[in-house]
Amino acid sequence: MTRILHIDSSSRPGRSDQKQHGSHTRRLTAQFIQNWLEKSPNTEVIYRDVGTNPPQPTTGDWVHAAFTNPADREDWMQDALRESDQLVDELLAADIIVAGVPMYNFGMPAQMKAWVDNIVRVGRTFGFDRARGDVPYWPLVTDNKSVVVLSARGDYGYDPKGRIAHMNHVEGGVFTPLQYIGISDQYGAAIEYDEFADERTAQSIKEAEQKVIKLVDTLMAKHCNINAA
Ligand SMILES: Cc1cc2nc3c(=O)[nH]c(=O)nc-3n(C[C@H](O)[C@H](O)[C@H](O)COP(=O)(O)O)c2cc1C
Questions:
Q1: Of 104, 155, 158, 166, best ligand 1 pocket probe by most atoms within 8 Å of the beta carbon
Q2: Is the pLDDT score of 226 beyond 80?
Q3: Is any ligand 1 atom within 6 A of the Cβ of residue 25?
Q4: Which of 3.20.20.150, 3.40.50.300, 3.40.50.360, 2.40.50.180 would CATH assign to domain 2-224?
Q5: For residue 88, which of 42, 150, 140, 131 has the smallest C-alpha distance?
Q6: How crowded is the C-beta side of 76, counted as CA atoms within 13 Å?
């Protein structure tokens, strides 16, 4: 059975297709999941809303505990890592990660960064050994997972080769650490023009929704051996 980890990270609680001032990224992730379940109902979806329930940012205790051999961890170290362990368990259980990640000040929201910081875990998602020399790190997630980042931006021109592509640190901010831990099959789609609220916004929503449907077919072929109709 395929498992999808569905993450939302917008601060806005509702979906833009259901609520005035609702979130576009929540709309796109919900559309992905709904479309997927219509085609493949026998799928487990794990839902994690870091937008309304952000993970704790990492602390000095967290770092100390993470770099302590698991067998030597004291109780306070287990406590410091409890939430991170749960987030890592959810990630490792999934075949596909579908994350709604809005652009906030040219990067991902702090609540999404807190998730990233909690799942890049030494000994669980990457290995570290100084004895290996110049490249002491290696990925531990080796089961061919895929990640989809569904974004939204107020302005426009952030896609590759676009007017202000160089100012977009959202997809790269998520993809680079996930690649580092071993998740290199990466996809994206985004809504632009949110600030303009005109026909360009409507067109951008339409195009992003079409991309989402195509992404479902692409990933279904890959993970479930189901070909697009
Ligand atoms: C705190 C904050 C920072 C933002 N920073 C940017 C930005 O740097 N560039 C941009 O184009 N839009 C920016 N926006 C607009 C959002 O990217 C846009 O409203 C998007 O639709 C938000 O995603 P959501 O609809 O899922 O909530 C910002 C919005 C907020 C709330």
A1: 104
A2: no
A3: yes
A4: 3.40.50.360
A5: 140
A6: 6
185-191: strand order across its sheet: 43-49, 2-8, 96-102, 146-152, 185-191
Please give the Cα distance from 79 to 147 (Å, whole number).
Answer: 29
111 pLDDT higher than 70:
yes
Q: Where are the alpha helices (DSSP H) in the chain?
A: 24-39, 60-66, 75-93, 110-119, 170-181, 199-224
pTM flag (> 0.90): yes
Q: How confident is the model at residue 131 (pLDDT cuts 50, 70, 90)?
A: very high
Please check the confidence at residue 228 and state whether its pLDDT lies above 60: no
Residue in this structure with the two tokens 């000095």, named with its chain if needed: 60
Question: pLDDT digits over 23-52, tens only?
Answer: 999 999 999 999 999 999 999 999 999 999
CA dist., res. 155 & res. 64, Å (int): 40
